[in-house]
Amino acid sequence: MSSPSASGEREGALEASFAGLPPLVESALHRVALLLHQLTEDASLPRNIRRGAQGALTELTRRGVAVDMKVAGTVGLLDELANDVNLPQHGRTAIWGIISQLESLR
């Protein structure tokens, strides 16, 4: 489990990644980033899925990249994860929910 200071640092990094965007977009991306972070720490998911979720989170929080490119890259990575045969159903449902939220930003 992460410490409170690590959680605060992560929140600050997320805010910096999405700074300057319209408030609704910033809020949606922040929410998606937190959901992805939850997937990275879900011990019931296979390690490769948790790593893939971390990769998607990294893609989403890249600096200097247009939002539509971040969203497209993240959706692509998540789509690959959702098709993994070892992914439990609850993980697939969570990933589909995240993809849906990202698609609404396009």
Notable characteristics:
mainly alpha, de novo design (two linked rop proteins), 0% strand, elongated
Written description of the protein model:
- The chain has 106 residues and is an all-alpha fold.
- The chain has a single domain (4-103), classed as Ta0600-like (de novo design (two linked rop proteins)).
- The protein has five helices and no strands.
- The mean pLDDT is 87.
Question: What is the correct CATH architecture?
Answer: Up-down Bundle
How much of the residues is beta strand, in percent?
A: under 5%
Helix content: over 70%
H/E topology pattern: HHHHH
CATH fourth-tier homologous superfamily: Ta0600-like
N-to-C span: 33 Å
Radius of gyration, in Å, reads: 13 Å
Q: Runs with pLDDT <50, length 5+?
A: none
Biggest β-sheet, characterized?
A: none
Topology:
Blueprint: H1 4-17, H2 23-40, H3 47-60, H4 67-82, H5 89-103
Helix pairs in contact: 2-3, 2-5, 3-4, 4-5
